[in-house]
Backbone:
C-alpha cells in the first residue's frame, strides 16, 4: 500500500507545483497590470494637466488683452461702458470696475 502511494507522489507533486505556479502567475500578472494601469493613468493625467494649463494660460492671456483694449478705449475715447463692453468682449460690470479704477 505504501508503495502504491509512493508511486502517486511524483504526480501529486507535479500537480501541486503546477497549481502553485498558476496562482503565482495570476498574482504576478494582476500586479503588473495594476502597475501598468497606474503608469498609463499618470501619463494621461500629465497630458490632461498640461492641456488644461495651456487652456487656462490662453484664457488668462485673452482676458488680459480684453482688459488692455477696454483700458485703452476708456482712456482715449468717450465711449460709454456698454459700448466698451461690446467691443472688448468684457461684461459691463468689468468695464465699470475698470473705469472706476482708472479714475483713482
Residues:
Amino acid at each position: 500500500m505504501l508503495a502504491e502511494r509512493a508511486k502517486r507522489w511524483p504526480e501529486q507533486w507535479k500537480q501541486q507545483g503546477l497549481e502553485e505556479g498558476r496562482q503565482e502567475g495570476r498574482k504576478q500578472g494582476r500586479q503588473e497590470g495594476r502597475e501598468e494601469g497606474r503608469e498609463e493613468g499618470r501619463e494621461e493625467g500629465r497630458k490632461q494637466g498640461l492641456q488644461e494649463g495651456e487652456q487656462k494660460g490662453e484664457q488668462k492671456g485673452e482676458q488680459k488683452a480684453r482688459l488692455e483694449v477696454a483700458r485703452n478705449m476708456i482712456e482715449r475715447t468717450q465711449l460709454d461702458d456698454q459700448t466698451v463692453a461690446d467691443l472688448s468682449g468684457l461684461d459691463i460690470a468689468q468695464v465699470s470696475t475698470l473705469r472706476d479704477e482708472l479714475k483713482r
Summary: The mean pLDDT is 83. The chain is about 90% helix and 0% strand. The CA atoms of residues 5 and 97 lie 95 Å apart. The longest helix spans residues 2-76.
